[in-house]
Write a structure and sequence with these properties.
mainly beta; Rubredoxin-like; 4-stranded antiparallel β-sheet; 3-stranded antiparallel β-sheet; 45% strand; binds zinc ion; DNA ligase; YfgJ-like; DUF1407/YfgJ-like_sf
Length: 73
């Protein structure tokens, strides 16, 4: 199963600087939510790796625990 699926039609999203569904012709941004407090996480780009920081918990969250959702732009 793909990790980047359109929430409307479940087709795989293309990456073009943002996530795009060719079928729905909608672009999405990927938003991470804190697994502990449900707050929207801040994405920190460091050394080629993405880290997710929760401003509510005031700590970094492991990517494997982060819940991702696609929001239409
Ligand atoms: Zn779609
Ligand atoms: Zn949190």
């Amino acid at each position: 199963m793909s990790e980047n699926q359109c929430p409307s039609c479940n087709n795989e999203l293309d990456w073009e600087g943002e996530y795009v569904c060719k079928t729905c012709q909608v672009s999405y941004k990927k938003i991470g939510y804190c697994p502990d407090c449900e707050a929207e996480l801040e994405k920190l780009q460091a050394c080629g790796a993405a880290n997710y920081f929760c401003n509510s918990c005031n700590e970094l969250k492991s990517k494997s625990r982060v819940r991702f959702e696609f929001a239409a732009n």
